[in-house]
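Hey, I was hoping to borrow your eyes for a little while. No rush at all, and the record is pasted right below.
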Amino acid sequence: MTADQAGPRDTTPAPAPGPAQTDPAPVVIIGAGPVGVTAALLLARRGIRTVILERHQDLYPLPRAVATDDEVRRILQAAGVGEEFDAIARPAKGLRLLDARHRVMAEFRRSEHGRHGYPQTSMFDQPELERLLRDALARSPECELRGGIEVAGVGPDTTGPVRVTYRDDDGEHHLWAEAVLGCDGAGSLTRDAIGAAWEDLRFEERWTVIDVRTKADVRCWEGVDQVCDPHRPATFMRVGEDRYRWEFRLQDGQQPVRELIAPWLSPSYDGDFEVVRETQYTFRARVADRWRSGRVFLLGDAAHLTPPFIGQGLCSGLRDAHNLTWKLARVLGQGGDERLLDTYESERKPHARRAIRLAVAMGWAMTGGQDGAAALRRRILAAACRIPGLSAAAGRDLSPPLAAGPLVRRRMRRSLVGTHCPQPWVVGLDGRRSRLDELLGDTFSVLTAAEPWPSLRALAHGLGVPAISVTDLRDDGTLTAWLRAGRADAVLLRPDRVVMDIVPAGGHGFTDTAAWASLLHTTRSPHPSPRTVEKSLLRSATR
């Protein structure tokens, strides 16, 4: 098929005769790690077809993520794998800071009941997550995975579909994509293709990561231990029933594994002990200076790299996917304005940068660094940890509100706008108990403190979204209390459950409808997918 057959946006000339070409795909995703596959699943739920191009035939050979937060578990729920992930995840109590003699300096507790409806921190084994994501991918007719290939080129940028060139055993091929998502890691070809460069945030250390399986009675507290020892900083956590992870900063003359982890084992233990994986990594802190060129986007490690000290590496990548996919689906299939796509980088880049800087700060504070001020930093840290309320504050969500922008209509400093709606258990009209997001579906929603008034119903109807009184949801009072605390009579939720706009208490309408309405609809004829026009359990009763 030639380029002029690919769709209404295509103005590129047909390529000259040459290598074999394949059918066009609405979205091409480069990289089949958790970020790329999750992006494909989120797009599939909105009826957008994807082709994923992956160099490896099997799962990624060097997975390392072991922790996730409650917001990311909500994203996995949105991708359709929430229940499967429940079966492989275990709640973690939080983080402890230990001194060189393994005495507790501070403890930062994490709740088993976070605002997103899940434990604030969960441990898991990344290969298990990848398997369940791949299984979901295989069940989705909108998704196609092509493994064992090498992507050779992306672009050049045009006003039409983007050309992706790849090679396999049969030769060279072209795909013409309405958008390209570069989920291809730190050495991203996609990043090079759009001319992006790294901004170095000045952290680089070599660490060894050791995964062990054993029946031993390992000394642990069902959370993460960070040993603040300038000579041998280390991180330890229990990942599964008999699976543990240790991370040590590398030194000259590295010790054998059994010697490194001896402080956590009984001296007399001589039973089973399997080193599943021992790998060296260089932890870096970097952000790409640009995340988009035309319809080509960077996600995950292609856009940002973070040290692992607050467990936000994979979490940040999955947040990228959640933020971008609903906007891209809106533009491709529902008449959304192209300017919607500008908000991906403007919202996610400051968010990711903040997480990286926090990880760097925590890394220097916890490991002590390698300079002359290390001992002073540790003393300051130990004193700070004794300040009343600090431990509780450190245990709060690591995801701050989004900054004000076209899709975050914040007028007051303390506002619900830019924050996530909590997700309690609710009861639908059919009497079925479910999580809030399952009831709302994959689109926008309006939640009100009382019965929706006529003008609000009319606006919701124009958006094609439900307007729901929280009193009809029969939750535990969480939503009513949340609206009252935020001084809002109603909120407009984006598909990613971020509050986009509010009706202030005593007000009659949203504060800035004119600013965001033009982004959601253009004069182009939208092509809604079957999934996006299905009725929710409540829509027929509220419109």
